[in-house]
Amino acid sequence: MELLIQRLFDGLYNGAIYAALALALVAIYRSTNLLNFAQGEMAMLSGYITLVLVSPPTAIGASGVVAGTSLASYLPGHPWPAWAAVIGAVVFGAVLGIVIEFVCIRPIQNRSDLTKINVTIGLLVLLNGITVAIWKTNSRALASPFPDGVDDRFIVAGARLRYSSLAVWAVLLVVVLLLGLLLLKTKAGLAFRAITSNPASAQLVGVSVGRTTALGWGVAAGIGAMAASLIGGALVLEPFLMMKLLIFGFAAATIGGLDSPIGAIVGGVIVGMSQSLVPGYLGVPTELSLIPPLVAMVLILLLRPSGLFGSRRVVRV
After folding, report:
1. Which of 18, 84, 164, 296 makes the best surface tag, with the fewest CB within 10 Å?
2. CA 205 to chain centre
3. How far, in Å, CA of 270 to CA of 251, rounded?
4. Does the bond joining 79 to the residue before it have cis omega, within 30 degrees of 0?
5. pTM, entire model
6. How many Cα atoms sit within 13 Å of 55 on the Cβ side?
7. Closest by alpha carbon to 13, among 143, 244, 243, 169?
8. Spatial distance between the Cα atoms of 153 and 9, rounded to a whole number of angstroms
């Protein structure tokens, strides 16, 4: 029983990570009907910005590589507290998302979806290359904004539940609530729904498609930056980390429904739990931990192609 509870706790923590990434994907899809394959790398670049903000300019890692960059010496009050650094990274991520939409996506907004997807794949390669060029391929430890050390957990039925697990879920639920308010209670949310349904008609009634799309990219990139910054407190940053995690984020978004924030949360829990429980009880090797979430995704899509909470498409003929 103790082992089961521990695996449930681990699954919930992993699920929070995947849900945050899925939420970023949903925010992009809600505003543009586009799957952004560069979402993970945008988040990763923001995670490294967190590293720069919390690291002294002369901080040396275990590998002998400078943790920050020369940029750090120009930042006032450096190093920043962990939470301030996370907020700074979220702002950076949001600005990065808006710039990418304006420079790379807006000029091709009338092109095919395949063209747009190819552009996001190109952005994935470009942003990963920029990250490697600046910070190399060394793994870097990132300070956690949550309690850390011997008192960073409490015991439940013999299993260890970290405060960071509860804190990540609390932050994630607040973000979902704010995103829901944005989509349902504001003019920007109404504009999101309008351009997703029919961009041409939305533009005819005065909706600024470009501004709304840029806002969607900014919100999604900010959420991704938050995810990468919080993940860094539990894992170590390395340039290919988010590329791996984004696969699970895609699975979570697909399971929950690509246009549903609540679905992103539920999908993240399903993926996290299947990854944590199935290998331990069905004998699936750890190296094949990707298989259980993908099997869960296939089974759910066979029963409900739009995902658990996704809107069904209505085709008028």
Report:
1. 84
2. 33
3. 10
4. yes
5. 0.82
6. 22
7. 169
8. 12
Burial class (CB in 10 A: 0-12, 13-18, 19+), 186: exposed
Between the alpha carbon of residue 255 and those of residues 161, 234, 303, 310, the distances in Å are 26, 25, 11, 9
Residue 19 C-beta-side C-alpha neighbours within 13 Å? 28
Residue 141 pairs with which residues in a beta bridge? 236
Look-up of token digits 């008609």: 201
Report which residue type is found at 247.
I
**Per-residue tens of pLDDT for the chain, all 317 residues:** 777 788 888 888 888 888 888 988 888 887 777 888 999 899 989 988 888 888 765 444 444 344 444 444 445 456 788 888 889 999 999 999 999 999 998 898 888 888 988 999 999 999 999 988 888 887 777 777 776 655 666 777 777 777 777 888 888 888 888 888 887 888 877 887 777 767 777 777 777 778 888 888 999 999 989 888 887 666 677 888 888 888 888 999 999 988 888 888 999 999 888 888 877 677 667 667 778 888 888 888 888 888 888 776 655 54
Within the chain, residue ranges assigned H as helices are 2-32, 39-54, 82-100, 113-135, 163-185, 187-197, 199-204, 209-231, 241-256, 261-282, 291-303
Do the beta carbons of residue 273 and residue 258 sit within 8 Å? no
**Which contacts of 115-119 are long-range, i.e. CB under 8 A and separated by 24 or more positions?**
116/34, 117/34, 117/35, 117/37
CA 231 to CA 26: how far, in whole Å? 19
Residue 74 dihedral angles phi and psi, to the nearest 5°: -95, 0
CB 32 within 8 A of CB 182: no
